[in-house]
Each structure stands twice: as C-alpha cells, then as structure tokens.
Write a structure and sequence with these properties.
The protein is of the alpha+beta class and 147 residues long. Helices cover 27% and strands 29% of the residues. The two termini are 16 Å apart. It comes from Planomonospora venezuelensis. InterPro entries: RutC-like_sf, YjgF/YER057c/UK114. It holds the Pfam family Ribonuc_L-PSP.
C-alpha cells in the first residue's frame, strides 16, 4: 500500500529502497509515477498473462496517484513497455478499460526485456491537476488533512 511523505509517494516495493527512488513524485500540479510492474512480495503476479499484469501495474500507478490526491481522470500521459509485440493488444485492452473515458496521451514501446524475465509489461503514468481557485499557494491536501 502506497503512503505519502511530503512530495514523495512510496509503495514499499522491493526496488524503491534498494535503488533509491520513490513510486511517485509530486511536483506542483504534476504527479509523475515511476515504472510499475506486477511485482509483489519478491515474485511476479500473473506470469504469462500480459493483460492481468497490465491491470496490476496500472493499479499500482493509480494507487500512487490517489495517495497524491489525484484521480484517474487527472491522468494525462501513459507509457507502457512490452517485451513482445503480441502483448500490445492485451495491454491496450487493459488501458482502454481503465482510461477509455479519460483518453490520455499514450505511447507503447517494445523493449528487449525488463528487470525480471517473468515481467511482460511495465507502465509509467503522469497526472496533472490545475490549481483550484480556492487553493492557497503552498497549501496541499496533505496539509488540509493534517497528515
């Protein structure tokens, strides 16, 4: 489960601590989410199933966006990386289910491989929300909620 510390969101993923990065960074109105996969508990969920790995990966990204105070409707850009051309349609189907009404900019790229050979897809998501008229500069949801 992701948690927020200042302008960083952490999910507790294995590589976040090992490689020194945050699941997401909040930068002004932007939430930029690091690459997300179907890794969990030292393993990879849904081996051999690009569609389910994509749903899981997008879920990790959307959880981080939610912890930063934004929603799927604030997503403006998605990038996904697949290890085989045959996975484009499955990942695209998952993307359409989650973002079909939002219609963010999207790029799909075939790569030679990911960090674990059982991983079929990795996703990156960026969200943006313009400042609201009622929001005071420097004020944040985190501050208003007292967390």
């Amino acid at each position: 489960m992701a948690h927020r510390t200042g302008s960083r969101v952490f999910s507790g993923g294995l590589w976040e601590e090992r490689y020194g990065y945050a699941r997401a960074v909040v930068a002004g109105p932007w939430v930029i989410v690091s690459g997300c996969t179907a890794a969990a508990g030292g393993g990879v969920l849904h081996e051999g199933d690009a569609y389910r790995q994509a749903l899981t990966s997008f879920g990790v990204a959307l959880d981080a966006i939610g912890k930063a105070g934004l929603s799927p409707h604030d997503v403006v850009r998605v990038r996904y990386y697949v290890i085989d051309d045959e996975h484009y349609d499955e990942v695209g189907r998952a993307h359409a289910e989650l973002f079909g009404e939002v219609r963010p900019a999207c790029t799909g790229v075939r790569v030679a491989g990911l960090i674990d050979p059982r991983m079929l897809v990795e996703v990156e998501v960026e969200a943006y929300r313009e400042a609201r008229a009622d929001q005071v500069p420097g004020d944040s949801q985190e501050t208003r909620n007292g967390t």
